[in-house]
Amino acid sequence: MRRAPIVLVVLVLFAAGSVEAQRKSTRKPPPKPVPLQTDAVQPKCPETLGTGVKTAATFCFILSGRDPAQGVLVDIPPHTGPATLLFDLHNRHTYSEEDVRGGRGFAKYTAVIGVLTMTGTLISRAGVQSEFRKASDLYDRISGGAGPGGVKAVAPLGREEVTIEIPADVIRVSLLGEVLDATTAAGHETATPGRTVAIVSNVRVEYRPAPPPRKK
Question: Is residue 174 part of a domain?
């Protein structure tokens, strides 16, 4: 008779353990985090320079201005959390074989651009600085010109790899020129509205894809 309470306690504990085991077995494992992916994106350029002979990249002019709608527009794919915008920034140089041979080929450029939301909020800035002395200083040549080899005189110079975090709620950004300080054979040049400040290429976006919409 004294063993009855002990047996009862054991049965109660066994039953509770069984219920808890069943609960654990029916619990769904937490969802795995969505991995980051990086996509190359084609920006909407107000003016395109062309395609690189060496890199096969597409180069776009970044113009000076204040209206985001007039900048280089980059759409951010549907995403969860902040995204990362990546691109290469270059100076703009007009190559002249005559100036180089005549010892007037030196040029120095500093360019600063802003990355803005479409409402004009500044997200971040980026800059590139480079010097030109000879043809090999050019980052690439652009096909489709009338010069020797069928290349254009205007070419990207230097390369700055830019990485900028984009807020989670932003789905499109604009690249606009802010500062240009250039010393060339033509003299000192600065940014004026509508003038090319820099060149952009190799635009990419790193992000976590948004989940697909729920089926109704």
Answer: yes
